[in-house]
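Changelog excerpt: complex records now keep ligands as SMILES alongside chain sequences, and the structure block spans every component. Example after the change:
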Amino acid sequence: MDTGQAAWMLASSAMVLLMTPALALFYGGMTRSKSVLNMMMMSFGAMGVVVPIYILWGWSASYGTDLFGDGAAGLMGNPFEMFGLADVQGAIGEDGSGALISVAFQMTFAILTVALISGAIADRAKYSTWLVFAAIWVTLSYFPLAHMVWGGGFLSGEDGSLASLLYDGVAPIDYAGGTVVHINAGVAGLVLALVIGARRGFGSEPMRPHSLPLTMLGAGVLWFGWFGFNVGSFVSYDDLDFATSWVDETGLVWINTTAATAAAILGWLVVEKIRDGKATSLGAASGIVAGLVAVTPACGALSPLGSLVLGLVAGALCALAVGLKYRFGFDDSLDVVGVHLVGGLVGTVGIGFLATSGGLFYGDGVAQLVVQTVVALFAVLWAGVVTLVIALALKAVMGWRVDPEDEVAGIDFAEHGESAYDLASTGGTTFKTGA
Amino acid sequence: MDTGQAAWMLASSAMVLLMTPALALFYGGMTRSKSVLNMMMMSFGAMGVVVPIYILWGWSASYGTDLFGDGAAGLMGNPFEMFGLADVQGAIGEDGSGALISVAFQMTFAILTVALISGAIADRAKYSTWLVFAAIWVTLSYFPLAHMVWGGGFLSGEDGSLASLLYDGVAPIDYAGGTVVHINAGVAGLVLALVIGARRGFGSEPMRPHSLPLTMLGAGVLWFGWFGFNVGSFVSYDDLDFATSWVDETGLVWINTTAATAAAILGWLVVEKIRDGKATSLGAASGIVAGLVAVTPACGALSPLGSLVLGLVAGALCALAVGLKYRFGFDDSLDVVGVHLVGGLVGTVGIGFLATSGGLFYGDGVAQLVVQTVVALFAVLWAGVVTLVIALALKAVMGWRVDPEDEVAGIDFAEHGESAYDLASTGGTTFKTGA
Amino acid sequence: MDTGQAAWMLASSAMVLLMTPALALFYGGMTRSKSVLNMMMMSFGAMGVVVPIYILWGWSASYGTDLFGDGAAGLMGNPFEMFGLADVQGAIGEDGSGALISVAFQMTFAILTVALISGAIADRAKYSTWLVFAAIWVTLSYFPLAHMVWGGGFLSGEDGSLASLLYDGVAPIDYAGGTVVHINAGVAGLVLALVIGARRGFGSEPMRPHSLPLTMLGAGVLWFGWFGFNVGSFVSYDDLDFATSWVDETGLVWINTTAATAAAILGWLVVEKIRDGKATSLGAASGIVAGLVAVTPACGALSPLGSLVLGLVAGALCALAVGLKYRFGFDDSLDVVGVHLVGGLVGTVGIGFLATSGGLFYGDGVAQLVVQTVVALFAVLWAGVVTLVIALALKAVMGWRVDPEDEVAGIDFAEHGESAYDLASTGGTTFKTGA
Amino acid sequence: MKLVTAVIKPHKWEEVREALAAAGVAGMTVTEASGYGQQKGHTEVYRGAEYDVSLVPKIRLEIVVDDVDVETVVTTISSAAQTGKIGDGKVWVVPVDSVVRVRTGETDEAAL
Amino acid sequence: MKLVTAVIKPHKWEEVREALAAAGVAGMTVTEASGYGQQKGHTEVYRGAEYDVSLVPKIRLEIVVDDVDVETVVTTISSAAQTGKIGDGKVWVVPVDSVVRVRTGETDEAAL
Amino acid sequence: MKLVTAVIKPHKWEEVREALAAAGVAGMTVTEASGYGQQKGHTEVYRGAEYDVSLVPKIRLEIVVDDVDVETVVTTISSAAQTGKIGDGKVWVVPVDSVVRVRTGETDEAAL
Ligand SMILES: Nc1ncnc2c1ncn2[C@@H]1O[C@H](COP(=O)(O)OP(=O)(O)O)[C@@H](O)[C@H]1O
Ligand SMILES: Nc1ncnc2c1ncn2[C@@H]1O[C@H](COP(=O)(O)OP(=O)(O)O)[C@@H](O)[C@H]1O
Ligand SMILES: Nc1ncnc2c1ncn2[C@@H]1O[C@H](COP(=O)(O)OP(=O)(O)O)[C@@H](O)[C@H]1O
């Protein structure tokens, strides 16, 4: 890694770290004003919990030698190999390789993925249970998938991997985390929503966003941070027919990221205009995220025109998908499923159609499409089973729900002892005592 | 482009992209709470519309071969030459040239410029008309000016350009967009305000900002993003007597950007203190933008001390200029004219006085000053005529104004079906149906 | 400085500049809604005042030749040597050295440090007095300390410095400003709070934060900006046993910054959970800042595990320290003492225990610990005496307090003629006249 | 005519509105209010400083009704708003001299 | 004395205030309110889920007046607040036993 | 029974609450309000445009009391809320026909 690449990775890492507070704003604006702090705290708590874990065993479990077997194409890295980042440089390369910068970068992905899930369980989950869940889930669902996809494991293109069993030489493509991040978080959100149950009044009481400017701010900052996420995830593919150097590939990834996102805004707004008669600001903010999600795995494999198409489709499909929860009656409160699972699937599978090298639409047959689909399904399965086990165990041991009365009065007070706003001339509040 | 320069350009592009959401906050805070979403949506909509256009024909129309004539010093590039970014690398340089990064960077400027205009027409414009306007205006006013100034066209220093007709060898200076971005948007704002007409109650009803913290947040983030805007716009001038390398010039541009902005805060606040008796937070936020606007064209040509002077003057003049709309009765609602047109003129013309190489105050005569002034006037003219034609055509075809009752009740509901805030314990809202 | 390092420094400078608006949000959210604008304006005003000063004499006073004596290990640089940044490159190195980028970077530190102080005097200080204070204090307390610590002065490791008098060859470590920034600002805050006196109703009337989402937003952006602050402060130590190149050291500093911050969130929340029964969002936001403060001086000298320990301790101690103001009755309104002074001391002294090279816990004896402690105490002393003199002089000459009635009605209107929010359907406001 | 003022728990507003609509009440004026009474508020903690929040959020309804409807309206509200827990609120009735409908100038019964 | 309570459209507040000032009314208390009546609210859509917003923003004025001024005040308000469209609001009058001006302790007429 | 309505300065709310509690008043309903009267608002300036803010923030209390307590309650409020400066507010009393406690259905004196 030269200093220029290192400079961009340092910036990228900071930008991805910023995405978690941005997500807190994006989600927080969508909740009612009595539960915005809890919503934001689920993200901030994820930062507190995941970072120490990542340093202790997360990097090792993701990028260490395969835990079982002969060290190839497995399910998880050895969490003790580089425990506490012991000798990271020695383990993966010589001095100056930027190994520590890679740790920094990857750490921020783990935090964000956990935080994404919280949108599915707004307003009702015990904070302590959430924190414990975060710690266990990142260990058992995130690190393994990161290992499988990026660490040379079962979902990579290595010998012995799933893809290699299907087609020889067709590696799955997941540039920045369609499977590891979005499908993973989306499935976890769905499972948690089912295990924990709906908010009191779901589908009957109004639960409209308490501050859309907060949500739009969050969406804007997420877009900014996502350049770190995608463009920082440079991976050297051999067959890119468009970009042939770091400078070119990063430029292409940047443009693709923006193209898909802008198109997804349009896609979402068009669906709204047709279905509801009005194009909303929440729709625009949601379209941004949907587009970014879909282009995450695909941003290095598409042309800008392909990215426009992918984004348009993702925006439209996600706009339709957020209605599913009412049809099927699961309270995925802030649409983790509708946006991240659906968007992640659109992107991961869409590569099979749109990849300039390997895509069906480019005349390269169905091999890539099949590989992408199978990998996506495997990720769904993995995340589903692991999350279900953790969620049920925690339900039995700690319980997931706050007291129903507290839920009605507002979880912010019940769990955090605070109210988000005091804009009035009096809050009828009395000072009692200093710390 | 080496990896270090590429790293900075990638970061810069992301920072400039962030400026559009930041502008949405800056503007949104200044509107009344019943129209903040529409205000923000004009920016977010610009992102959705301009990006696909830029990819399809925007880059080509800006930096392609001159559309008419022998390909030199013309008015617009050929929009079909690199349609869809076809073969961008081949067309403008070899692999590794960073051509795609330049596209990324320039694309963000086009978005922002369009979004800037929206401040002039707050609270009253049909959203559909705005989106169509954005698409046409960026094509007919922005791309041509970008081509003229930066694409070797009529306002560059090339043979056959306006400047070359006046003085041989005196190239106009517009480092990061005083003409292309600010004068262009400022004039467009003025024309739209005149064509569309004033808000109901303009000049009689109170229309004070609904959230100044939002505006200050926007101003702060705009400042941050502007480092990408200015410092990312490295252009190699031959005669810079201060900075002699990339590392030095970027450092100088960074310092100048900050110097002018800080001085403009002071300039604006001093005018307020004298005229109104109080220095306001809206004044500080506005001073930031005024300073950034003025230094945009000048940031590579001045010394830090010259930048302090420019900023001070720009802050003070813009603070005085925002009152013009009441005197002349045009409802430039959020002062696009007072800040961007006036600031852009101060910066563009100010170079003629303050440029360390070429400036009148540095004993280099009036040549630069004349060139700068003429170029600025040409930009005013171009933007004025083009915008007027588009605005009148759209008035005839689609109409510009929402229903007067909707304007009073709030455009957020009328155009987007949403309200920005729900801070109350009840909103008297009933859940009707899921999607 | 190569282009890669320059790219990162440019980004870092922009990120640190963003920290001041972020601080304005962080602080602004904690005040009551009637004084949020004044709180934010103290930060924005610091930007307006400090930048011109820094350009004029700040850089020179920090990094110029020692003002007195033979030019070694002194108390302040010569403010006239590079007045107006005259010939900065010539004075400190050849072209391409990035000298101007260093100026840019250092300038942002001076702004932030001044802004930090304002938290101690929320809701009650005359704005004009604050601006004058900012100008004098940065000159007499900040530039000298910057010179002493980073400019080869009395608190550096140079011959004749304090440390060299104690132990030969043991240089004090302050990577990014534990003494210069945080102890300095923390002590100044304490002194100002004492000189100015408590807010009316302190300790009896409720003064709860008016918008915690604003505070959390501020904390998130501060974290982001702090990567510029810490990771941009690369200093070449000879004996780092962990990082051996720019790429490695920056990676390490990045990780350490994040590790300490995450751990401090946990530390703060655990104290709250035990003491108050609930883990709050204000606690999480405060923990972030506490962790960042503590790791500021230490981020280049610790291992990631050491950083986790430091952060945990800092979070917990600061959570306890914010109660001191009620015990001792000084109104350090937003806990500049509890967070910046205490956090700065924890970090500066903690290095003596935790430095992988020199730390007591690593078997390297007490030399580093003694040096760190003595240097910290000297900084406390310097800041205390200088601030006291300035504060008392301004009290006599200009006065510090606004009218008591204005304080009750809200300083925003009294000093700035504005109100922060207008969310109501009517504000009972009448338009009087345009500018 | 009488003015019925009711102070109820916010999450009961929807039910009360429906019950009133069923009872034929077509108009009312609603304000957000805070209640102070037997129902206790809660304690909040900010950086260790404790605050007693003594006021509890309530919704306040005002309905001008014909004398004959007073009984029905009061009963409808009380039953719809009842949870049986402390803090359910109060309903009080005040005499009204006259009412005007601004749009038409109609007065008294015709104005309702 | 009487208490005149008026519920009007928010954008009419300025006109009503001026008309009242012209009619010699020097004081009043204003609250934000929401109205429910013939004037319908609107529908909002968030991610496809529809909400009926049944309440409409209103301004609520309270003016304690001398018996002799009641007629004037009511008429002044109704005409100033009238747009002729549904939802213009109501004005009602309630008897008042006594008034105190807190600052001076003056009562009744002197307190107005 | 009577309904005592008081409009006071916001920063006096705490003192009034304590005085009322001392006087045995256990319940009340509070709304935020804005006052218009002799106390003048202020002028705000946004980008040079001046606005007169004519309304001043107030707190509005409603207390239903037994006839015998009216005097005490009114006096308690007026003295606790008094600063002697213009804008201290008003207290007015209105007759009440009946009160219901929603939780129990108790009426009149028992409902207070
Ligand atoms: N004397 C009163 N006058 C006016 N409102 C009252 C009075 N007492 C109580 N209230 C209102 O009724 C609400 C409920 O009263 P509270 O004493 O808490 O419970 P409950 O009515 O169930 O006994 C209070 O929050 C307040 O808004
Ligand atoms: N019975 C009532 N009691 C109190 N306020 C009422 C009543 N009916 C209507 N209002 C108020 O008057 C407003 C206007 O009433 P509405 O029926 O919408 O139109 P209009 O008065 O023009 O017929 C309502 O929004 C509500 O605030
Ligand atoms: N006629 C009135 N009816 C209702 N409320 C009034 C009336 N006059 C004044 N008020 C209320 O009393 C408050 C104080 O009145 P103001 O005239 O400013 O001072 P003071 O009562 O000290 O003479 C006003 O802000 C308003 O809320």
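The beta strands of chain E are 2-8, 28-36, 42-46, 49-53, 56-65, 90-95, 98-101. Chain E has a mean pLDDT of 93.
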